[in-house]
């Protein structure tokens, strides 16, 4: 789809009508859906293809807030950031992927709104069971990577590097926030490698007490220390011929880092309390959520080890940096739980999708997965609605929605007429109470007394 700057004729009502008739002339017969939204978030035009795609009508929605359409985060983001955006959305009912391209409408040099084009992707219509699954035709990958869900550019790029890494024996350093899939990629690289039939041994260097870490990694001889009643084989020895995954390597003490460096360089080590050098041929994949360069600077990580580990660096971006994967992951986990437990399959209300896009996901995919497990079990019925999801997840979406709805009131009320002063006042009080949750805080924010807010809230039936 080409993006063009479209001059927007919107200076007065007459010109506005003229603009609408020219939109109609331009877009009426287009097979792609077209939506025109002005800078206040009000719908100016939708073509018949858009009406058909989303089951709405231009007649009913013209002049209304975009929150009354099955709109998507892309329109909102484009509108707020005043930037053109490309992306896609999952059609809530048709189970199809729709590519979305927004372009800016310019009124001279000032921003007039956005024009958004929706194109249904060619894939055949898919069942609810299939909804959200990656399009297998578009990605050929070894089976080992099939547990990795996501079609974003960054995931595709990581899969490409991981596949190459699997073919070599080089050390891999995976970085990224907690819960973003570092462990998943480490295991997939092992499974796709020539050593896949050999062990994959994982150790979390940050979770093991300092005194025990050496013996966990390298094992010990009988009598090496009090309590060492028999010989113990360490993780490196267990992983011999296969892969060791050193998770949270940034938390490894300096004296242990030297020993890992020696294994990489000389491929041998001694058990604690032993003299015998043990040969060890292990592929190392390390991971950390910390910034190793910073640790090197403050003297808690060895630079030589860093370079030895960082032969193939892989950075897994956080979920909020690849929002386009959220819905696919959500449906993946819903399907998985449905298959494993027999809980009926569900669908997401459109507002929930928007809330998921707005939320920051500090716990990344682990957090999303846990939430979906909870929702699948707790929500009765087959639709997960905005009120079913925790407040902390829906908060940003709610605030954004309310601010857009309120902004749109500056010109029009819900009937498309100029709003009265009382209507303004009601929305202002309602918004402040929603946002702050108490008369006191709302009053402070509005610069009036607690008594005034309480009286107005009663007057407008916002509270009992
Ligand atoms: N792209 C993905 N597709 C499907 N599941 C994923 C994906 N990425 C992560 N997961 C799942 O999310 C959960 C967390 O992933 P993982 O344990 O690999 O994260 P991590 O980055 O290693 O976390 P930590 O740093 O806390 O150890 C796992 O259940 C994993 O299977």
UniProtKB/TrEMBL annotation:
Organism domain of life: Bacteria
GO molecular function terms attached to this record: ATP binding; DNA binding
Entries under Pfam families matching the protein: AAA_lid_14, HTH_50, PAS_8, Sigma54_activat
Sigma-54 factor interaction domain mapped to chain residues: 148-377
Domain PAS: 19-65
GO BP field: regulation of DNA-templated transcription
Gene3D superfamilies linked to this entry: 1.10.8.60, Homeodomain-like, P-loop containing nucleotide triphosphate hydrolases, PAS domain
Keyword Magnesium tagged: no
Alphabetical keyword list: Aromatic hydrocarbons catabolism, ATP-binding, DNA-binding, Nucleotide-binding, Transcription, Transcription regulation
CDD domains noted in UniProt: AAA (cd00009), PAS (cd00130)
PANTHER family noted in UniProt: C4-DICARBOXYLATE TRANSPORT TRANSCRIPTIONAL REGULATORY PROTEIN DCTD, TRANSCRIPTIONAL REGULATORY PROTEIN
Listed name of the protein: HTH-type transcriptional regulatory protein TyrR
Lineage: Bacteria, Bacillati, Bacillota, Clostridia, Eubacteriales
